[in-house]
Structures are given as structure tokens and as C-alpha cells.
Design goal:
- The chain is mainly alpha-helical.
- Helices cover about 55% and strands about 0% of the residues.
- The protein has 16 helices and no strands.
Length: about 375
């Protein structure tokens, strides 16, 4: 074949290729709408796979809005899920451990009240709380000033609906004028009312102390009886007052269920009872009888100084690791320390003439009536 013929053949082949390419290019736009993304990847003659891929891409594209809706709804609901754990317990074990770090670093605090606590576990926990409080309040004593059983029974009756401090500031004048049951039994009620006015409910209290003095003078020879069944016969004297007298004037064990005692034993889940007699029975069953009087002092002192009714100082509480109610009050140690009362907060106690053990432990006597 000559060069001219070869050249002619090459030209004719080129023309044919050009014509084929033009046809292919003319056909390609028709396929662009079906599969625009495969323009550079698919050869000119392979348009069939593009048709098969198109539905897949359409399906994928159709799924994108649904996924976007799911992610959007997930974002909307996410804050609700995140807020739920924050509302769980008011107490966290880590926070509790930090709150009592200065008092009992080796202990941990339960975040929830003990559920399903066995009787044995309850007894052990209750007695451990009492032991801890005994170390904190080794000088605990009745916070009413008295020199004999008569003064104690009268002071205890007067302490209803008022503080022991107020009673201690009032009774010196009362006992100076009426030192014996016979003297108070024969007193002018109006004069007694005037003396007892600072204690509140002074008319009712005057009637009670004069009435019990008459019973003592007439039925017991002017002496306070040392039996529960006799004490509760005195006007204004209930089981609580009787046990205060028996435990502190006669050395006979008894549980004093006052407002502080009731509040704390329920917080500690020692009992769910609200009736004082039922509380006395339930708590008494957890301890040996010989511990009852000191137990009462420990619990009452703790209630007055740290475990307050409205805002307990949880962050300064020595028994926080054992308390199911931890977190009801202030858990920050520094803020809790500012809530402490009486000698724990650096202030005077409630007795004008406290025991020597209290003074030796750093306690301060209360000021007399009208001072400061």
C-alpha cells in the first residue's frame, strides 16, 4: 500500500471516529440527567450501568432528609436525656466524702436511704452513730440548771415551747423565792406568773408548777418520787419529763423523746413512727437499757448544735457517712461550719452553771437573764 492510500485510509478512519464521537456526544446529554456524577468515570458506550446506579443514588438522596430529621429530633431530645441524671439524688458519694473530709476522711456516704436494711444492720448502724456522737460530745449533760430533783422537774415543765437557756435564766429568781415544793404550793399565782412570763405560756406553766408542788407536798411528803408511774401523776409531767428526772436526778435509764430526738431518729431511719411513745419503744429496742440516758443527751445535743430542723449543717456533721438524710442541709464544709450553734460555733452554751467537765472541754456558760 502506498503512502497516499494509507493516508486516505487514516483520514477516512478519522472521519468515522469523529462521526462516532459526535454521535456519542450527541447521545451523552440525554444520559446526563440520569447519572450526572458518572460523566468522567463511565466510557461513552457504557450507559446501561449509569441507569442502574441512578435509582440507588436517588434512594440515598431520599434517605438523607429522613436522617437529617432523625438527627434534628435527636438534638431536640438530647437536653432532656442529659437533665435526667442531674435530678437523681441530691447527694453524691464523692460530694459527701468531700463534705466530711476534715472529720472522717476514711468514710463514705450512701447516696440513697438504706433500703431493705436488715435488723442487724440497723442495730449496728444506730450504735455506731451513738459511739461517734459520744466522742464528739463527751461532756453531754442535761442543759437545765438544777441542784435537786424538785428543781429539775420544775425546770423541765417550764422548758416546753421554749429554750433551756431561757428557762435557766428564769428559774434562779423562782427558786430563790420558792425553794421547796411547800413554798411554791402556797405561792400567789400572779407573782409566779410574773416571774415565768419570759418562758412563754406563763399562765399554763404557773398552774402546772403550783399544781405539781401541791401534789408533792400532800402526797409524797415534799419529795419527788423516783418511779415513772408516780411521776406521770404530777400535773404537767409526761413520760418525757419523767425520764429526764429519772435519768438525771435518780440515775435510772430513760429515753427523752423531745422534738430534737424525734427529728433525728427519723432522719437516721431508726424508726418511721411519729408518736413519742412508739419512738421511745422502737429506739429503746436498738440499745442496751444502760445506754438510754446518755443516748438521749447525745442525740439532743447533736440536734441543737448541728442537725438543725430547718437547715442541718451536713457538711460539718461527724455522722454524715452513716446518715441516710445527708444532703438535706448545707453540704459545703465552710458554709456548714457557719451554721453551728452553741459551743460548736464558738458561742456560749445554755447553762448558767454547767458541769466542770463541760467547762474543761472549752464550753462557755450562758449569760444570766438581762445580760447582753
Amino acid at each position: 500500500m502506498t503512502k497516499k492510500a494509507a493516508t486516505g485510509t487514516e483520514k477516512s478512519q478519522g472521519v468515522e471516529k469523529t462521526q462516532r464521537g459526535e454521535k456519542t456526544e450527541k447521545a451523552a446529554p440525554a444520559k446526563k440527567s440520569a447519572a450526572p456524577a458518572k460523566k468522567s468515570a463511565a466510557p461513552a458506550g457504557k450507559s446501561a450501568p449509569a441507569k442502574k446506579l441512578a435509582p440507588v443514588k436517588k434512594a440515598a438522596a431520599a434517605k438523607q432528609p429522613a436522617a437529617a430529621k432523625k438527627s434534628a429530633s435527636a438534638k431536640k431530645t438530647a437536653p432532656v436525656k442529659k437533665q435526667a441524671p442531674a435530678k437523681k439524688p441530691a447527694v453524691a458519694p464523692k460530694k459527701a466524702a468531700a463534705a466530711v473530709k476534715g472529720v472522717a476522711p476514711a468514710k463514705t456516704v450512701a447516696a440513697q436511704p438504706p433500703r431493705g436494711e436488715s435488723r442487724t444492720a440497723l442495730v449496728r448502724r444506730a450504735r455506731r452513730i451513738d459511739r461517734e456522737l459520744a466522742e464528739v460530745y463527751p461532756y453531754a449533760h442535761p442543759e437545765l440548771d438544777f441542784e435537786n430533783p424538785f428543781q429539775l422537774v420544775v425546770a423541765t415543765v417550764l422548758s416546753a415551747q421554749t429554750t433551756d437557756l431561757r428557762v435557766n435564766q428564769t428559774t434562779p429568781a423562782l427558786f430563790a423565792k420558792y425553794p421547796t415544793p411547800e413554798d411554791l404550793a402556797a405561792a400567789n399565782p400572779e407573782e409566779v406568773e410574773e416571774i415565768l412570763r419570759p418562758t412563754g405560756f406563763f399562765r399554763a406553766k404557773t398552774k402546772s408548777v403550783i399544781g405539781l408542788s401541791k401534789v408533792l407536798a400532800e402526797d409524797f411528803g415534799g419529795e419527788v418520787p423516783g418511779r415513772l408511774e408516780d411521776l406521770v401523776k404530777l400535773p404537767g409531767v409526761g413520760r418525757k419529763t419523767a425520764f429526764v428526772v429519772l435519768g438525771n436526778a435518780f440515775g435510772r435509764p430513760g429515753i427523752t423523746v423531745d422534738t430534737h430526738f424525734q427529728r433525728l431518729v427519723r432522719r437516721w431511719r431508726w424508726t418511721e413512727a411519729t408518736d413519742p411513745d412508739k419512738i421511745e419503744a422502737a429506739v429503746g429496742a436498738l440499745f442496751p437499757k444502760s445506754d438510754w440516758t446518755d443516748l438521749s443527751h447525745h442525740v439532743i445535743w447533736h440536734g441543737r448544735r448541728i442537725c438543725h430542723a430547718r437547715k442541718p449543717a451536713c457538711g460539718a456533721c461527724p455522722v454524715a457517712p452513716l446518715c441516710p438524710a445527708y444532703g438535706e442541709g448545707e453540704t459545703d464544709p465552710e458554709k456548714a461550719e457557719k451554721l453551728l450553734k452553741y459551743e460548736k460555733g464558738g458561742f456560749p452554751g445554755q447553762r448558767l452553771n454547767p458541769p466542770r467537765s463541760y467547762l474543761e472541754a472549752g464550753g462557755k456558760p450562758a449569760p444570766p437573764l438581762g445580760a447582753g
